[in-house]
Amino acid sequence: MGCATCSKNNGSGLPSGCRNNGWCASGGCNKLEVFNWLAGMELPSGQKSFDCVEIRFKNTRKEYYRNESNLELHVGDIVAVEATSGHDIGAVTLTGELVRLQMNKRKVDPSSREIKKVYRKARESDIDKWKDAQKREHETMLEARKTAAEMKLTMKIGDVEYQGDGTKAMFYYTADERIDFRELIKVLADKFKVRIEMRQIGSRQEAGRIGGIGSCGRELCCSTWLTDFRTVSTSAARYQQLALNPIKLAGQCGKLKCCLNYELDSYLDALKDFPKTDKLLKTEKGDAFHLKTDIFKRTIWYAYKDVPDKFIPLQVDRVKEILNMNQQGEKPFELNDFVEVEQKPKLGFENVVGQDSLTRFDRKKSRRKKNRHRNRRRD
Q: Are 284 and 257 in contact, with CB atoms under 8 Å apart?
């Protein structure tokens, strides 16, 4: 099973869409999918298949389990796996040798005894119990929020995940400070009659789970493809010459937008050749200070202290030339002598095809033609 686009092809017989050769998990393509470039390849004779599989659960949670019973598992199968108490239900997202590479990437030891086991393929009764537990998640979250508000705890419960057998509930919350929720756990366990586990997440992870539309008009990066959340500082906005307006720079999570890091390397490479903007340009007319910079046009605007509203554009090479003169104790007369005037190309019309004037149909008719028409009417 796969996403809807995988069933369409261009006549070549190969599925289109994510180009995962039809081996993507059921439910469509998302940021948790892994391109299985080993799909359909047979193992060498005498070699056993890797005994671990990758299982996906709710809230971007993935874990690795050992297939000790040698079950024939495929991507998209619903299985019952070992849990701390009872069992959990998840979907198989990856099998075979690619699981070994993923475990090495995430620094998980394949020979560790802490890796839990796959019990069996989920029965119909297991799936029914799992779906009933999922239906209770939203109502449980709302009740937990009310309880936390009554206890005056400065925390926000963003989501609830029930274990597959319905005996345990995991509460995801965000908080700016440390929270003592021991009393909250007692109240929730008594109210919902399940084991309670509290897990703190960051604001970016919460936005990735909830989703939404960004200021660019597209779906949030954290909810579609972004998996690693790197720190974003205000220096990224300064390097890109952006106004430090928190309303425009903050995303739906309340933090600085992750997209501020996307083009930062290009700006840093371009700024290596630029002079420092904290130095004044000294001329006989007066000292000039930096106003703004256009990095990719390599233009820097300066203004005199006496006339701060008059912008003078200078190229980077010209600014370096003036700074070198200042270091040698020399001062140019004024900055306007270093301004390079752009020559705009002249736009005009040329009759390259040999056609007549474009206004040839606007000419008035001659009097001779009018007189001929009058003579014909008289006759």
A: no
What the block records as the tokens of 143 is: 């009740």
pLDDT in tens, 368-377: 655 666 666 6
Neighbouring residues of 20: CB distance < 8 A, sequence distance ≥ 6: 2, 6, 29, 33, 35, 36, 39
Whether residue 207 lies inside any domain: the answer is no
How many separate domains does the chain show? 4
User: In terms of residue numbers, what domain contains 82?
Assistant: 4-122
Residue 246 has φ and ψ, to the nearest 5°, of -60, -25
HSE, CB side, 13 Å, CA atoms: give it for residue 277.
Answer: 18
Q: Does residue 171 sit in the same domain as residue 75?
A: no
Centroid of chain to Cα 268: 21
Beta bridge partners of 156: 174
Q: Are strands 195-200 and 168-174 parallel, antiparallel or unpaired?
A: parallel
Q: Which residues contact 318 (CB under 8 A, 6 or more apart)?
A: 338, 340
pLDDT band at 21 (very low <50, low <70, confident <90, very high): very low
Decide if 318 is inside a domain.
yes
CA distance 283 to 204: 50
Query: In this predicted model, what pLDDT tens digit does every residue of 116-134 receive, in sequence order?
Result: 999 999 999 999 999 999 9
Residue 253 inside a domain? The answer is: yes
pTM greater than 0.85 (yes/no): no
Please tell me the distance from the alpha carbon of residue 282 to that of residue 277, in angstroms, as a whole number. Answer: 13
Tell me: do 37 and 101 sit in the same domain: yes
CATH of the domain at 191: 3.30.300
Let me know whether 34 and 106 are in one domain: yes
Instruction: Tell me the β-bridge partners of 162.
Output: 169
